[in-house]
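In this supplementary section we document a worked example of the pipeline. Step one takes a protein sequence of length 432 as its only input; no multiple sequence alignment statistics are reported here. Step two produces a three-dimensional model, which step three serialises into structure tokens for compact storage. The input and output of this example are shown verbatim.
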Amino acid sequence: MVPRPVLIGCAVVAVFAGGFLRWWREPSRGAGPPGAETSLERLARLDRESSPDDAVAQGRLATEWVRLGLRSEDSQHLLRARIAARRALLIDPERVDALKVELLLLHHDHRFRELRDAAAGLAEQSPPDAFFVGLLGDAELELGRYDEAEAAYQRMMDLKPSHATYTRVGYLRLLLGDVDGAISVLKLAADSVDRRDGDSVARALCELGDAYLAKGSPDTAFEYFTVALTHSPALDRAHVGRGHVLRSRGQPEAAAEEYRVAVASRPRAGHRAFLADALAAAGHEEEARAESTRAVHDVADDAREHARLLLEQGGDLAQAEALARQEMTHRQDVFTQAVLAHALVSAGKVEEARPLAAAAVRLGTRNARLHHVAGLVEAASGNRDAARHHLDAALRGFPPLSPRAEAKARAMLEAWTPPANVGARAEGKHLP
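The serialised model returned by step three reads:
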């Protein structure tokens, strides 16, 4: 692991010598002139015009469809990517771009063990290709094998420092609780992205916004999300980030508007859940219930997220536990451990929940949801000081807890607080 700090340290100097600041001044190019063919129209035309027996054309189509599909989460785009990749591999089983698409689809389908094995094999066959090593690291991350993920990312860094490499290393550092280190690396990622690609620039800035949320600097995070929108005005994660900050400022109506734009841009269940939380916090109970119902309906294909939403909404505990256990059979990262621990402690299975909750916070990740679950489990175990530590961190952290979870956490803290301090806690003030 010796080369990485040296490499990153040199690059940080270059960035702060003037490279990064240009993102704050120069929005990238927007859409083409009125009447110009859109990316989707161009791809659809190429799909119609390309021969199914042309491996080169099908490989390129697969790459473009999967890129579009992963950003939009449109299942039809991903299906077209899958079909084009299979066509290419039928003609040329070693077609590299089609193999890469196959790996990306394994990741999308949460088939992480298959992804790890396939990526490891391809990395051995093509040692200079950092793409396979990066996906190997991604699979290890989802399987909760963080040392192995770090080793893979280090190999990727040694092969080819790039936007993709820096982004992965930054995310891993966030997971490990090294927020300042993550911010340094994510600035390298932002500086190395293709400036002509406004969407990628905006996403890189959102990575930094998320890191500043983890750092506890929501005002700085808000600025990053806002600048991101100058590069990609409809980017959902930028609106979600702004919504988080506005909720933390006690502005649920304004937060709801940000989440509403995010849902309109990309109707993900998680976005709907945030919108429902903001609406509930603003007193719009009926609309909040409707959005919550839609969120649970839309998340049916993601067992972990489905379980988490059921738990947050006070839904079917047995179903939530079954879904979380199902997810743990093929994904053992800290977030899946936390969801299962939440389901177990909610069902009164404290002994089984305790090691999972401890594992979920062992890395030092600054995430409100992880601290919230750890606080619930410590409270159920009778460890009041530990519970207080985690619940305080959950209430201060991001993403914001649901109003229901927040009210419960505050009630627990107030019940343990001497009468002289109850008023301060009720107002959300931090006590010494």
